[in-house]
Amino acid sequence: QVQLVESGGGLVQPGGSLRLSCAASGFKFSRYTMSWYRQAPGKERELVATIISAGGSTNYGDSVKGRFTISRDNAKNTVYLQMNSLKPEDTAVYYCNAVLVTGLGPSSKYVYWGQGTQVTVSS
Asked: Is the pLDDT of residue 55 over 90?
């Protein structure tokens, strides 16, 4: 039974920080590339950050570079998103994603999503 459970969302003032967590179970976490996505009302889902299975390489969306940091702890089956210098435009539902990436590209079968956690940045 695969599960991805996000936590850590909430209401924060502009300039503040939040740390999101995603606890994974039911699959070989250490073999999967992990990502955070977000979706704001009326907008398409966008990629926020990605970290490969070994944790040695990361990628970030342009809008969050320099402010957000993705990390993972394979021993704890958990991926994190540290969000600093938050802006109102960061307000969105944040989703945790897991995908098995092979030499043929991202798997269409071995891909999982969490339920999302709300982040609201407002004065």
From this structure: no
